[in-house]
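Tokens in:
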């Protein structure tokens, strides 16, 4: 395999980081890694390019257009036979990676935080769902990725302090009218019953009505992310990867489609009852019981049954 590491080089710091990442890629992938630097002519002239080791390509650009840069990079990649392309973290790196992949007909992953060859297979990782989960992908021999590779930080030897200085706090400034300590947020009281609402509940008023019922009965209440994004619920009521994770005895999922991000928030439920008018909704594959009906027709009966038990 031959890897081409592409960097938008506009200063020495970027160049030094690029060289370190080239060595990191060579160590992790075990392949030949060459460097391609693209920048405006004046920037290229200022860079200490002679200090760089290994093979390098210099690509002068007059303006930053992804299509223009991508077209010229494609020529280099095809002529020199590079199988894997890594775009350095920077301005529009993801867009450039996607463009190259579309032109070269290759698989593409953006914002990769780890890239390595393990037991003969090429694997990469990236953060997903608002950086709450790390997803792992297996790549073919020919691919394009944009990276956010982490570099090891320097560890400095700690020395004893030469002098200790005690600083007295300042007095309250005269422009501060009132000082009030905000109480620490209390932990949510969890109930063995969770009422979850999705976009199948088509009106704000209906969401509010179900919330009030849950509050009255002492049940936990939450919504799927799209419901909150529409402004029908609070951000703090989101269930799933980007919100709260629950483990109730019973979850009543009303109008929930069953996206993976949401299911992560209720998958620890002992029992999941889904109410959905769509028999093919994804949640029907994960629920213990499904009522295929409009929620308005059955919700009251379901609540009464839960209350009796």
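Residues out:
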């Amino acid at each position: 395999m031959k890897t081409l590491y592409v960097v938008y080089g506009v200063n020495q710091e970027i160049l030094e980081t690029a060289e370190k990442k080239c060595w990191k890629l060579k160590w992790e992938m075990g392949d030949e890694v060459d460097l391609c630097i693209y920048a405006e002519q004046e920037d290229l002239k200022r860079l200490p390019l002679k200090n760089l080791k290994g093979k390098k390509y210099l690509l002068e650009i007059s303006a930053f257009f992804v299509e223009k840069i991508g077209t010229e990079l494609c020529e280099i990649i095809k002529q020199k036979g590079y199988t894997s392309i890594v775009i350095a973290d920077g301005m529009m790196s993801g867009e450039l990676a996607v463009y190259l992949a579309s032109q070269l007909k290759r698989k593409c992953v953006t914002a990769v935080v780890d890239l390595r060859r393990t037991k003969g297979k090429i694997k990469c990782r990236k953060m997903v769902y608002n950086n709450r989960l790390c997803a792992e992908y297996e790549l073919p021999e020919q691919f394009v990725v944009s990276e956010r590779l982490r570099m090891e930080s320097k560890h400095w030897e700690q020395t004893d302090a030469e002098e200790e200085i005690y600083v007295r706090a300042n007095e309250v400034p005269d422009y501060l009218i009132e000082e009030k300590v905000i109480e620490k947020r209390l932990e949510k009281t969890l109930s063995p019953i969770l009422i979850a609402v999705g976009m199948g509940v088509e009106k704000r008023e209906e969401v509010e009505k179900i919330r009030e019922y849950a509050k009255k009965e002492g049940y936990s209440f939450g919504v799927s992310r799209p419901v909150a994004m529409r402004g029908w619920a609070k951000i703090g009521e989101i269930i799933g990867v980007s919100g709260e994770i629950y483990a109730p005895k019973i979850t009543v999922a009303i109008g929930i489609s069953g996206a993976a991000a949401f299911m992560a928030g209720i998958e620890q439920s002992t029992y999941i009852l889904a109410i959905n008018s769509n028999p093919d909704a994804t949640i029907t594959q994960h629920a213990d019981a499904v009522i295929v009906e409009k929620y308005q027709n059955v919700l009251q009966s379901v609540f009464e049954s839960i209350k009796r038990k």
